[in-house]
């Protein structure tokens, strides 16, 4: 699996004139791939650019995708209007994405420099496509009644009662601009169990996610590149 990943990397990152042209500022990449569009599990590698060379800085780890696999998301890549992700389709987004806030139930972990927010029971991510707050993180102020149902028809409580969001990173999918109905609340987060699919996010072991969070460097403009392996060298920016 690791040698295959190196072949995939060379096919779209290391060529002298790669099919995918990453921004010059990007020095870190989280590369995630599945075997096929319908795959619910896959592989993640961390890559870092040193000089003109991209190198792997981690062993391959197992991750889980949406229960219905992947579809093209809305990120930095050119939009593909066919097989495009929709709200509630149970698919993880494929493409190239910036990363937003890291978050978790506890205070900021040691060794973490990436922007981090400790979530409370007043933090919500809105997936109500008819709301002006669609696909945004909202916090109900302390001087208001904590009643999300009065504000939105659908939302994600960020401080869940299970462990899934004990650590997470916001994936900037469908943000520039936000298009209603094209998917919301996409995260890297802790897996429910090994091999357990998500509703559209990418999940993994908590220890693996913590390593990623500690590795991220805002000065190296890290990007998430995620797709079926057969599509990686077809991504256009």
Percent strand equals 25-35%
Give the tally of β-strands: 14
How many angstroms separate the termini? 26 Å
Portion in helices: under 10%
Number of helices: 2
| Overall mean pLDDT | 91
Name the helix and strand elements from N-terminus to C-terminus, one letter apiece: HEEEEEEEEEEEEEHE
Structural class by sheet pairing and helices = mainly beta
Shape: globular
| Whole-number total of structural domains | 1
> How many strands, what sense, and barrel or not for the largest sheet?
11 strands, mixed
Over the alpha carbons, how many angstroms does the gyration radius reach?
A: 17 Å
Task: Summarize the topology.
Elements: H1 2-12, E1 28-34, E2 41-50, E3 53-56, E4 61-64, E5 70-72, E6 92-104, E7 116-118, E8 123-126, E9 137-139, E10 155-157, E11 167-171, E12 187-190, E13 202-204, H2 206-215, E14 223-228
Parallel strand pairs: 1-14, 5-6, 6-7, 12-13
Antiparallel strand pairs: 1-2, 2-3, 2-4, 6-11, 6-14, 8-9, 8-10, 11-12
Describe this structure in words.
- With 237 residues, the chain is mainly beta.
- It contains two helices and 14 strands.
- Strands 1, 2, 3, 4, 5, 6, 7, 11, 12, 13 and 14 form an eleven-stranded mixed beta sheet that branches. A three-stranded antiparallel beta sheet has the order 9-8-10, with no helix packed on it.
- The longest helix is centred in the N-terminal third of the chain and has 11 residues, at 2-12.
- The chain starts with a helix and ends in a 9-residue tail after the last strand.
- The model is unreliable at 1-5 and 12-18 (pLDDT under 50).
